[in-house]
Specification:
Length: about 160
């Protein structure tokens, strides 16, 4: 079961927005998808509650009798929204069961530095180092009238990571 986690230490980088879009895309492909919040803010759960019920379904976590969050039966694809500031043990725990980490990155210097720090930490984790959990970045809020797209283009000269 593919598990994609959307991660960035930087608050407001677009994690919840991106996670919601990926889950909605999966639902439109007729995949049995769950969108789970690891974030205390519960933005994704709040969005799911407001979503038009006539649209293709996206499941939330289920809470079992022991009060543990579980992936509902029949789900084939999982998208996880995570909180800003995720690092250390909490990040490693997500990487333990994610197949892919997607990092939404805005063009500002602070956003890029935060994403680079996140990638550097991810690279130290065995599942990432072995290629069992893949890491990707996606450019957010790129305004075509600015150099935002250019500064986010991958390359070691700019960011130190590809
Ligand atoms: N691609 C985008 N284009 C325009 N606005 C965006 C885009 N992505 C996110 N936003 C806006 O930026 C704000 C922050 O987005 P979002 O809540 O998804 O970030 P977040 O990383 O989940 O934040 P937090 O760290 O607080 O959980 C929201 O107002 C959202 O609508
Ligand atoms: Mg969020």
């Amino acid at each position: 079961m593919p598990v994609v986690a959307v991660v960035n230490r930087k608050g407001g980088s677009g994690k919840s927005t991106f996670a919601a879009h990926v889950a909605a895309w999966c639902a439109r492909q007729k995949l049995a998808v769950m969108l789970g919040d690891v974030d205390r803010q519960q933005s994704s759960r709040a969005w799911l509650r407001r979503r038009d019920p006539s649209l293709p379904g996206i499941a939330p976590w289920v809470v079992d009798q022991k009060n543990v969050l579980r992936v509902p039966t029949g789900i084939t694809h999982v998208v996880l929204d995570t909180p800003g500031g995720l690092h250390g043990f909490e990040l490693a725990r997500i990487v333990m069961f994610a197949d892919a980490i997607v990092i939404p990155v805005c063009p500002s210097l602070f956003d890029r530095e935060s994403a680079a720090a996140c990638v550097a930490e991810l690279k130290t984790l065995p599942r990432v180092a072995k290629g069992q959990c893949r890491v990707a970045a996606v450019a957010m809020r790129v305004d075509g009238r600015t150099s935002g797209g250019e500064v986010l283009r991958p390359g070691p000269a700019r960011t130190g990571w590809r």
